Structure formats: C-alpha cells, structure tokens
C-alpha cells in the first residue's frame, strides 16, 4: 500500500490516539472541537473520530499557537487552507477535463463564455456569435505550469 492509497480524510482515530499523535491532551482536542477549530467526525454514538488531516491540523495549531498566534487567527488560517485545498482540487478537476477534451478534439476550441458568464461548449466548426458569446481560451499543445525562476539566476 502506497501513501497515495491512504485516505487522509478517513475518520479512524479515537480522541486518545489523536491526542497522542498530535502531542496534545485529549481535553485540548475537546476544547478545539467546541471552538470549531478542529472539528472531528462523529460516530453514530457521538464519539469523536479524527483523520490524518485532523491530526496534521492539530500539529499545525500547536505550532502556530507556540509562535504566539491567537486562536481566532488560527481558525481563519485553517479555514483559508481548507479553501485553498478545495480550490486546488477544483483546478485539478478542470485541468483533467480540458486535457480529456484536447485528446478528443486536438486543435479545436474547447469552450466559450456565454452572455451570462456560463461556460458554453463549442462544437468543432461552430462560429461564435460575437454579440452574445466570447471565446476565452484556445488550446495550446501542452498544459504545463510555467517554469519557476531559480535563485541561481539572481
């Protein structure tokens, strides 16, 4: 089993195990749950179940708290990190869809923005009505991130 096979969101750890893994007291985890800082899943009986991601968040909370960051700020940071993770997943999903479309129709226009801002699929050979739709993307040969500038060049 590789690391890719592990579901980091699977609620598998009881509070005592999560506390041990995060280096915190179980009462601290209960307090963080009440504050909405790190909220574990619950079993049908109401017991807390923490995932690997929760344990990592708890470690991050301990690190930030040790650096003097207050709990309200830590809560906001964790919310923003969750949002970034969510958006990153969405971008990956969209890149996969575009790649699949490119494989199906190489060189074709993939989509356009409709008058309301909605995404409009374009069939090969279809012309865009300039008054109502605007082509916003034309495929390139390869989808790859831009090269990062290295520190050696400075």
From TrEMBL:
UniProt-recorded name of the protein = Helix-turn-helix transcriptional regulator
Key word Translocase present in the record? Answer: no
What are the leading ranks of the lineage? Bacteria, Bacillati, Actinomycetota, Actinomycetes, Micrococcales
Q: Which organism is it from?
A: Microbacterium aoyamense
Q: Name one Pfam family in it.
A: MerR_1
Can you give the residue ranges of the HTH merR-type domain?
Answer: 15-80
Q: Which UniProt keywords apply?
A: Coiled coil, DNA-binding
Q: Where is the signal peptide?
A: none
Record's superkingdom? Answer: Bacteria
Known PANTHER family for this protein? HTH-TYPE TRANSCRIPTIONAL REGULATOR YFMP, REDOX-CYCLING DRUG-SENSING TRANSCRIPTIONAL ACTIVATOR SOXR
Coiled coil ranges: 77-104
């Amino acid at each position: 089993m590789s690391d890719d096979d592990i579901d980091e969101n699977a609620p598998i750890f009881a509070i005592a195990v999560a506390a041990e893994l995060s280096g915190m007291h179980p009462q601290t985890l209960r307090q963080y749950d009440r504050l909405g800082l790190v909220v574990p899943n619950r079993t049908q009986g109401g017991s807390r179940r923490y995932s690997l991601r929760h344990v990592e968040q708890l470690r991050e909370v301990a690190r930030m708290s040790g650096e003097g960051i207050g709990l309200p700020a830590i809560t906001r940071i964790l919310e923003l990190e969750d949002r970034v993770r969510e958006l990153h997943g969405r971008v990956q999903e969209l890149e996969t869809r575009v790649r699949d479309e490119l494989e199906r129709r190489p060189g074709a226009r993939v989509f356009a923005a409709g008058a309301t801002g909605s995404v409009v699929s374009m069939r090969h050979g279809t012309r865009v009505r300039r008054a109502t739709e605007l082509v916003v993307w034309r495929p390139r040969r390869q989808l790859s991130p831009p090269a990062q500038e290295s520190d050696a060049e400075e």
